[in-house]
Amino acid sequence: MTTNRISVTVNGTDYSADVEPRLLLIHLLRDVLDLTGTHLGCDTSSCGACTILLNGRSLKSCTMFAVQADGADITTVEGLASDGKYHAVQEGFWQKHGLQCGFCTPGMMISAVQLLDRNPDPDEGEIRTAIRGNLCRCTGYHNIVEAIRYAAANRNTGAMSGGKQ
Amino acid sequence: MTIALKGESLKRREDHRLITGDGTYVDDVRLPGLSHVAFVRSPHAHALIRSIDASAAAAAPGVQRVFTGAELQEQLGSLPVGWVLPDQNSPPHPPLAFEKVRYVGDAVAAIVADSPYEAQDATELVKVEYESLDVVVDGEKATQMGAPQLHEDAPDNTSFEWEVHSADRGYDDAAKEAEVVIKQRMRNQRLIPNSMEPRGIVADFNAGTEQITIWTSTQIPHLVRLLFSAVTGHPEHKVRVIAPDVGGAFGSKLYLYAEEVILGMIAKNLKRPVKWIESRQENFIATTHGRDHIADAEICGNRDGTISGFKVHVYANLGAYLSTFAPGIPTILYGLLLSGVYKVPHISCVVTGVFTNTTPVDAYRGAGRPEATFVLERLVDMFAAEIGRDPVAVRRKNFLPTFKNGRTVSTGVVYDSGDYRATLNRALEIFDYKEFRREQREARRNGRLIGVGFSTYIEISGLAPSAVAASLGAGAGLWESSTVRVHPTGTVTVYTGTASSGQGHETTFAQIASEELGVPYDDIDIVHGDTEKQPFGTGTFGSRSVSVGGQALLMSLVKVKEKATKIAAHQMGVEPDHVTFKDGTFTVEDIPESQMTFAEVAGQAYSAVNLPPDTEPGLEAVSFFDPENFTWPFGCHICVVEVSPDTGETRVLRYVAVDDIGNVINPMIVDGMLHGGIAQGIGQAMQERAVYSDDGQLLSGSMLDYAVPTAEDLPMFETDRTVTPSPSNDLGVKGAGEAGTIAATPAIVNAAVDALKHLGVRHIDMPLHSEKMWRIIRDAREKQRAERSTRAKQRETGGKS
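Structure tokens for the assembled complex are given below, as produced in the milestone run.
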């Protein structure tokens, strides 16, 4: 088995690893770097559970080999909160009950982060289009739309709770 | 935070770990020395296994062992059926097939390797020689002469023929006397549940204690333990099952699966931990499917709008084997619902359960009840259309009157409480029906097709009463249990036998405990999903967690409170009935300064220096609750759709749901569950469909081919409630998990038929795909044109003669 040495920065931490050329990026994150917050939900890049930010762009991490990510700067769900405070999108999902089983949530939130970076005040239709590549089987998307609206409205207020009622 | 109350929309405490990536799903479980399992599955729907040559696979890099069915046959036993109907044929179901495969996805070998990639690689090196057999995938065709036979001990591929009738068996006579009889064949298509987390299992064996530990993504850890033990003979008390965070289930994680048995026994054989994570492709073929009914349905009644009876015969496609609860779904949870919310005197229902060369079918959200509701609510609409009356007026005319404590209906079951007019009236306050009909007429003039559909549904929830369920075929008690342990500092740990797969039990149950004990919400932990922490339980399905598990919790809280009151009274020198307990404080009546807090009493219970006589130290309680009746949620859903006359594309424009699920503990969580339930109903009505080729290949076998709704496919939902408390439990709750799915499909299809009613359309089978709708519109218009031209010719010839 040949391996390649790669280096990535994930959530601000530098990692190096020897990986098989065929190793998927999602498996690098989960099984090599032990960052299990990102989930794998399908094998046809349909469900979006594995969505991460790679050099600032959202990506389904099951669609890329780890070796292709050599040198990349990656953000996963574990990197959204900072200084003990939720990211606005996390706060929105919490406040608006945007998750039930939580399995799609990390990827869904990353897509929402990407949307708000590009469009700070999306309407319902724009939100639905932006997350159409992320499947959720629990919520019917109603509260996810509300959560992203909440995040858009509150992203600059700095009033993130950090999660206590 | 302070004391929480029932009825508050508290934000969920489980969210914190789930939105930060700190949750623990099965695939996140890490054990030292973990090996990985991959399955070789049959590509044939029906074939004899001539030979299996695993030598190349066994020699592949990283491979430790290859197990075949023949090798493990005696250790694995046959998968159990937990629901047995009279005269039911329950053929053996080997976890690893060893003589014959009966569906695409039937596992024939398991590979154990150092890494998941190596295990997967080796699956391609196992040479299985198959002799293919004829295949049948259709539930009706499988019962016909000459159909390929799946099991030796199930003649005509039939597992059972089950019936329920109103006591007088008078439907056929009623139909003879009725002014109107309408018959319609309705197909309730097969669905694939698709929880976002596929199944997954980690199994470990401790050779020192002989304990097998199984982490599995399941709704029923305790039943998995019981059934695993029954199948393998490994003692039940030496099996521990843990359901960690479960990424959705919807009924598909409600069974003992082959993989759970196989992984457990591999761990035992190899004395090392092993893991299997289902791929989505496997999830499509190896996890149970739902629905798949062919129903010949009938309604009879009179032109004044009175319904006399419903009759239905169903071919229920069960797939290749009986899954754990499969026989109960199309029978008990279907036939017993056929009175609906109507005072209809005559019911006749016969269900034929059929084996086919397809993935086993069992519960999928709603499970039997959506199929029954679809048939009923469609028939009522067809009846209204036939007699030229408004579908809302016909429903009102036939509603059962309001009742608060029990009413026996024609299927013989006793509904708990109901006020069907109230939910309809509330829904019509939200939705202006008269205005809609005006808009509809105007839209038609402008060439637009819009329609409205109603579904005034009822469902069976709170699946429990063990004796009743046993009399109907259930093989296990369906009670629920709780343990409440108060710590010496006054904080509380609650253990429940229910097992959340996203329902928010940790929040809801903490609200119940906080209010009852007056203990701050943050001082209460809810523990679930581990048979070693809460030794007995049944699990989460059938919208039962709060109505059965919540009541079991309430009973333990009451016991704890009684003991604490006794200790407080003793210490304050009065009789217990002179002590009141409010907001976490015990106070002697008429002496407000004589007080003890709950935490002080807890401390005294454990310091044990001044306890009342005959009082043991400690403060904890265990309770089991088995209700006397099910709960019967109900409601009215209204859907508006628009159908494009040019493309057939159909869209839901508006969805109003007024549900009565009794009292509500956390309205925010309940609304969320209703949204999700409705979404799955819209998914079935509009787009989802499992498709098999005639040779048994699943053509809709990936998320590219099976249309799970996306955010763009669904509208915002308008939800509201009425409250008719259930007398089946002290909390007065009914259950919310499945209501949306049960109600939705007929509301949507009724709306689509309403949109096309003026074209002569009477019924449309789901899903409402654009092509189907386009063909229906085209055919209807051609038929209308042909009729017009015939009439014109008749007038011409009539004129000449």
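Chain A has two domains: 4-78, 88-156. Helices of chain A lie at 25-32, 88-95, 105-118, 124-130, 142-154. Further analysis is deferred to the final report.
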